[in-house]
Amino acid sequence: MDKTHFDQLVAGVKEMKRHMARKAVHGARVSEVVEPDVRAIREAASISQAQFAKLIGVNLRTLQNWEQHRTRPTGPARVLLKIVSNNPKAAVEAINQ
Fold first, then answer.
1. Distance between CA atoms of 1 and 34, rounded to whole angstroms?
2. Residue 36 CB partners (closer than 8 Å, separation 6+)
3. Which letter, b or e, does each residue of 34-73 get, where b requires 16 or more Cβ atoms within 10 Å of its Cβ?
4. CA 81, CA 64: separation in Å to the nearest integer?
5. Which of 16-20, 55-59, 82-86 has the lowest mean pLDDT?
């Protein structure tokens, strides 16, 4: 590999790193994803972490990681959190049935 190709490869890796950090990269679009505020959703439902984790079917530690922004909910968990956030009390009642 000659220096030109190596430099292009390094530049590409740097762009990829910027893109993964959700920073602007020429030719790439970064969509704005609104992260659910898991703690606020749980508190609106007026239940403990352990109860909420059991209710939505996740490990307590997973819920704690979401609330402390160490990890983010994905896929079905995001959808369920959105449903709960729209009407916390009704969602808790519906899930409990």
1. 42
2. 73, 78, 81, 82, 85
3. eebebbebbebbeeeeeebbebbebeeebbbbbbeeeeeb
4. 14
5. 16-20
Residue 92 has a CB neighbour count (10 Å cut-off) of 19
Distance of CA 95 to the CA centre of its chain: 22
What domain count does the chain have? 2
Phi, psi (deg, nearest 5) at residue 55: -60, -45
What torsion, rounded to 10 degrees, do the Cα atoms 85, 87, 89, 90 define? -130
Residue 21 is classified by DSSP as T
Which domain CATH number covers 53? 1.10.260.40
Domain shared by 10 and 56, yes or no: no
Global confidence as pTM: 0.63
